[in-house]
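Z., the sequence and structure:
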Amino acid sequence: MFYETAKNNHGLPFNPFKSCVVPRPIGWVSTVSHDGIINLAPFSMFNQLNYDPPFVCFSGSNRTGTGQRKDSVTNAEETGEFVVNMATYELREQINVTSQFVDPDVDEFELAGLNKIPSKLVRPPRVAESPIHLECKYHGTWTLPANRRHSAHHVVIGEVVGIHIRDDVIGADGKIDIKKIRPLARLGYMDYTSVTEVFTMQTQGNPAGQIGEAVAKVKLAV
């Protein structure tokens, strides 16, 4: 089949686009407002953009029917900070609770029964139950055009300035144990998945990974 996105003439009961770019990691973003109100929300439009230095982004649409920006977007822009907490299969129910549209003065940590722990370099707290946290400094926002009134998406970009990794998810080989964490991912529609299988391949035509490992071994040898 083929369809033009502007016409949306796919003839299917549901728009298939969100299931054409999968799986998408979920960014569980914690922020603090200027008034000190804490917010926690998941974003399936989330990914890393660079690694040296590391940058990540999350995209939030305006609130349906109001045209207002989501609290996470506003807070990140106004305070210049946010934290991305690793979304995992074990925490799927709590993540779902924090996806609700609630009033700005509602603390989603408390709503989902989650514990807060302080960050080191930014003000927003971290989800204690999450195994990995990325402390971020706000870099900028890119507002994307919308076909419907009040449905614009705001892509928030942040530089990762600090990373927390729980010791028990680092394996004996010094690598993060992804199968133990089981990161949560979105598949489109109301479908999700988590990582339960991992395989390794040698990179073809881009030996940067092998070169990096070789340099590290030389440094250790010296």
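The helical segments are 71-79, 92-97, 108-112, 178-181, 208-221. DSSP finds five helices and twelve strands in the chain.

Let me know what you think.
H.
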